[in-house]
Amino acid sequence: RLFFISRYTVENFPARFTYLPYLIMGLTARLFHINLPLMYQLARVVFGLSFIFLIYKIIRLYFHSNKIYRIVSFFLVLFGTGFWYIKKINNISFIYRNLSFWTEVNTLDRIFYIPHHLLSKVFMLASILILFSSVSKKSWKLLILASFVGILSGLSSPFVFINLIMTIIIASFVFLIIQLISKRRIPLFLIYSFIFTIISSSSLLYLRWVEQAGFPWNHYLEREKMMFPVTPFDIFLLYGPNTILALFAIPKIVFRKSLLDIFFLSWILEPLLGILLFTWVIPIQNIRFLSGSTFIPLGIIACEGLFVLCRLLKKYLLVPQLVTCF
Prior knowledge:
- The chain is mainly alpha-helical.
- The chain has helices at residues 20-32, 36-62, 67-79, 115-137, 140-156, 158-181, 188-200, 202-212, 220-223, 232-239, 241-247, 250-256, 259-276, 295-316, 320-325; strands at 84-89, 92-97.
- Strands 1-2 form a two-stranded antiparallel sheet.
- A hairpin with a 2-residue loop joins β1 and β2 (92-97).
- α2 packs across α3 (67-79), α5 (140-156) packs parallel to α7 (188-200) and α13 packs across α14 (295-316).
- The longest helix is centred in the N-terminal third of the chain and has 27 residues, at 36-62.
- It is globular, with a radius of gyration of 21 Å.
């Protein structure tokens, strides 16, 4: 009952434990006698709302003492979009979003996307929250729980979870360099993040084994070799106006050198590094590095930059009314 087979081929092959979200959905539908198409749509709604709730929890982790910042950040995260442009086809003008062929980065679809990506992102955000809680409370139990939730994220969609692992690796490397320069001892976050990465990555190793085990699971191998023409400028256009606002926060963030700042900046930069560097060593399509929901940290840092900009306008232009309207 917990193993998948394919009904689209007559060949015999061993069933595998995979496609975790659809196993959960199928068992739930059978238990409550729910029509499968209805179950699919209900899952999108439930997972999407859970995703939004955890986005706010991530925002609260960063802006834990300022409600106004949390509200503005929540708005920028949910409604932040890329730059749009006009394209003419047969003398008819159309408004296009950059990388529009990749549905997952669409402003609406990224919240109510296909269930397995959504559930993986729900588990991803939950594992981040629990991991940081384990560091602040110095709790090994929470670390083990975060690692288990990370495994669930990887089993739901390895492409989403790979982005989290790479973000943690980037953040850990940068944080380690800062600690070595300042001649401080190795912080607890580096130890916990290393353990988290080792344990939770077992899901990726398992799915890689399934993928190599034979037909039909290996049909993904050839498809993942296909690379899309994505450039750093494409990523800038995809990130949109929030990128400009976020730039105003960089001096403040660099001065603070806090763990959350480093983690969020690493999260934002991870797709760029993934497409330029990691895609040569990780056997997935380069476009998969856009699956890490970077619009979340980008909107949060953009909020920080927005208030920095407002203070600059108020201080040097002496137009508080303009700042208020902005």
